[in-house]
């Protein structure tokens, strides 16, 4: 029985010769066939450090010049809009057409300078447009070489007529038989209006003195988003006898 145990122990336990042979193995010169925990930790930290550095190299750091350049390049990529230009810009709405305007204003050609009302708040304000064309009768003389809409027509005719559309309404009590443009103040012409422009005019009632038949209004005229003319207007209106 003892001899059987001795044989078993000799098979399970490595001999000194095998231990010494493993210690002299060229693969593990220190006598160990595995890395120690400290070496494994050091190896892993170096691997993680190199991986992090590679990631930093591949992805630009936020707020860095490289990141800003990359973002700008992404934003610079144009997106094609296939909509034809004639369909991109909607037309002005029509609140009052030329026939309705003619029923309110007493003016006629060549002094009716309002084509359409696009917004109207009874007794408060109105927004109207005048399509300026080369066929307007004032262009041959103002000026032949550079057609510019006369400022006096913008103020005393076109804008004043939009004011008349506000005043000659039942809400205000005006009467076109005795309605007059009485005065202007603080008028400024910002930019010339030329043939081909669409003059958009807003007139707003600021103060109304029915007892004296006097109304004060503020007006601005635009071409696109640019103010081309602005000022204060004084209107005189009477009552039907």
Automatic annotation (TrEMBL):
Its EC number is 4.2.1.59. This is 3-hydroxyacyl-[acyl-carrier-protein] dehydratase. It comes from Linum tenue. The keyword Amino-acid biosynthesis does not apply. It is found in: Cytoplasm. Signal peptide: none annotated. Pfam families: FabA. Residues 30-40 have a biased composition (Polar residues).
